[in-house]
Amino acid sequence: MDTSVFVELLDVPPMNARRREVLAEMDARLKARVRFVLPTATVVETGNHVFQIKEGAARRTIAGTFMSLLRKTARGEAPWVLHERTWDGDFLASLCSGGSTGMDLAEHTVRRQLGTGDLSIVAERDLYASRAQAEVRSWTLEATMGTWADLP
Known about the structure:
Helices cover 59% and strands 3% of the residues. By secondary structure, the protein is mainly alpha-helical. It has two domains: 82 residues, no CATH class; 51 residues, no CATH class.
C-alpha cells in the first residue's frame, strides 16, 4: 500500500480528494481476500503529511487517528499487516539498485521518476514477494509509481 492510498484512508487534507473511491476499493479488495502490507516508507511519509497539516485541530485529530491505526497494526488488528523485516545491507543494496524497476536510485533521481521513499516501497515489495511466494503488487494512486506497481 503506497502513501497515496494510506493518506486517503486516513483522510489527510488536502490529499483526500479520492477518499470515497479508495474506501470502496479497499472494501472490494478485502472482500476478495486481498492481503495488504503496510511498508515502512508509507508510515514515515504519511506521518510527514500529517505533520504538515496547516490547521491545528485537524492535525491533532488526524495524528490521533494515525497513531490509533499504527497501534492496531502493531496488535494485528488492522486490515493490513507489517512486512516485518529489517533494514539490512541487502535491503539497502536493493534500494540503491532500484529493485525490479531496471533503474538505480541515481537514475530515478536524475529522471525524476521515483524518490527514495517510493523506491523503498518497490524494494520492500520485491523482498516480500520473494518471501511470500505470491503475486504481490503495489496499490498506488500515483501515475509514476503505477508504472512499477505490477513488477517483478
